[in-house]
Design goal:
By secondary structure, the chain is mostly helical. The protein has 20 helices and two strands. Helices cover 72% and strands 1% of the residues. The longest helix is centred in the first third of the chain and has 32 residues.
């Protein structure tokens, strides 16, 4: 082969990797987002996103910091109401700024690229992978609990099984979107069935008069502890804003978005409260605090030989939740990369039409967080970062009312609601900093790592020279390794 023809082949290969072939008229809409989701679809997205591992992990954390059963139930209800207020504010933002990316898009519109990048960094580097690590660890605890009925499962075994769970679902999400959605559907059914069984057993216990644990005895008066209890409660409600991430695919968002939010948040608050009531009809506060798997302990007390089914149902629930994080995270990565704030490779899809680079990025970060096996420490990291950034997104609402009063607002929220939400967010974020300064400090450091990254990689005046060559070379390498190309869009 002549040097000229060899060079020509290399040039053709490079060009094929750098760009897609010209799009014919009949193909122009391939890959474009279409509004196909109904109101029911929107409700199932929110309910499926919220109900994950939180309801099976957080009862212990909420009770630990409140001190009594009745106080913990009040925190669960208050967390639901708090989430509803935030979701109501998001309804105005979502119908006003109809872009995928949710709060990232709102902060970009209101405060500019630097603040938006910090939000993007928090979500991509902390919230999504850390949440996935939490759910994977919960999956491991519930799978291993029947094997270690008298003690907590070994930490190394728990971490290894969590890593296997993440790696298996990473393969599924890289292999086929259809397979990933089928996993999500079936494991969502298992999740709802587990909660239905627990609630039904709780109602039966209430009918038998099992109410001796429902008291305020032992309630803490420490404000910092109460604020920390909200971290665990609010963690269980994480996901109420996920519909805003895919609002471009929702039919008639002005009508369906607020309805989906209202129905979903009310339903989840009722289900969570009834599930906690069910736990306390059978288990004492001491038993709940001493259990790493509350639902398993509950089932062992009531169901006899059938108790083995509960950890399997809960494991299925958490397995599906890990899959859900992998399945939905690619949209945020896409929104950030489309704005030039994340590597372009994260927008790419493989020949099997799956977002392989984005899925691998989330999976690798999640595996890194598995080095911390303390679930409640991880919840505090996530809680601090999540509610700080969501509070900033809600702040966009009154700011945009002042700076851009002429924007079309199909839904107009009374400013009392964002004011209440922002004040509560400040309390929830600031007060635990006193009680858990080490964990809050770690959370702040993780957030502040966004500043040098932005200045060195994104800010035109301070960015490192020669980065384009490195990123282009890395992008081509990732494209070759994953057989990925940029998707066609409208």
């Amino acid at each position: 082969m002549s040097p000229k023809s060899k060079a020509g082949e290399e040039e053709c290969e490079t060009e094929a990797l750098k760009s897609d072939p010209p799009i014919e008229d009949s193909e122009k809409d391939v890959g474009a987002l279409e509004a196909k989701m109904s109101l029911l679809n929107g409700i199932t997205v929110i309910v499926g996103s919220i109900i994950g591992s939180g309801i099976f992990v957080s009862p212990t954390g909420v009770l630990k910091y409140t001190g009594s059963v009745n106080a913990s139930l009040l925190v669960w209800v208050a967390s639901g109401i708090f989430s509803m207020i935030g979701a109501y504010c998001y309804a105005e933002l979502g119908t006003m700024i109809r872009l995928s990316g949710a709060d990232y898009a709102y902060i970009m519109e209101t405060f500019g690229p630097f603040a938006a990048f910090i939000r993007l960094w928090i979500e991509c580097m902390i919230v999504r992978p850390c949440s996935q690590a939490i759910v994977a660890l919960t999956f491991s605890v519930y799978v291993l609990k029947p094997i270690f009925p008298e003690c907590d499962p070994p930490e190394d075994a728990t971490r290894l099984l969590a890593a296997c769970c993440i790696l298996l679902l990473t393969f599924v999400n890289c292999w086929s979107v259809r397979a990933a959605t089928r996993v999500q559907d079936w494991f969502t059914y298992a999740k709802l069935l587990a909660l239905f069984i627990i609630i039904a057993a709780g109602i039966y216990q209430l009918c038998r008069g099992k109410v001796e644990h429902f008291t305020f005895d032992g309630t803490t008066s420490d404000v910092t502890s109460i604020a920390l209890s909200f971290y665990s409660g609010l963690f269980a409600y994480n996901g109420w804003n996920y519909l805003n991430f895919i609002i471009e695919e929702l039919k008639d968002p002005v009508r369906n978005l607020p309805r989906a939010i209202a129905i979903s948040c009310t339903l989840v608050t009722i289900v969570y409260t009834l599930t906690n009531v069910a736990f306390y009809t059978t288990l004492s506060p001491t038993e709940v605090l001493g259990s790493a798997a509350v639902a398993v302990t509950f089932a062992e007390r009531l169901f006899g030989w059938f108790a083995l089914s509960i950890p399997l149902f809960v494991a299925a629930s958490t397995f599906g939740a890990v899959n859900g994080v992998l399945l939905t995270s690619s949209r945020l990565f896409y929104a950030g990369a489309a704005n030039g704030q994340l590597p372009a490779m994260l927008t790419m899809v493989s020949v099997r039409a799956t977002p392989v680079p984005a899925v691998l990025a989330v999976a690798l970060l999640s595996l890194l967080y598995l080095t911390v096996s303390d679930i409640y420490a991880l919840i505090n990291y996530v809680g601090f970062a999540t509610w700080l950034s969501i509070g900033a997104a809600v702040l966009c609402l009154p700011v945009l009312r002042y700076t851009q009063p002429n924007l079309e607002r199909p839904i107009k929220v009374n400013l009392m609601f964002p004011a209440v939400y922002i004040v509560c967010t400040v309390l929830v974020v600031a007060v635990p900093a006193v009680a858990s300064p080490a964990e809050t400090g770690v959370g702040c450091l993780m957030i502040l790592t966004a500043v040098p990254v932005y200045l060195l990689l994104l800010e035109p005046h301070t960015r490192l020279r020669g980065l384009a060559n490195i990123t282009d070379g890395t992008t081509r390498l990732i494209q070759k390794l994953t057989l990925s190309v940029r998707p066609k869009v409208k």
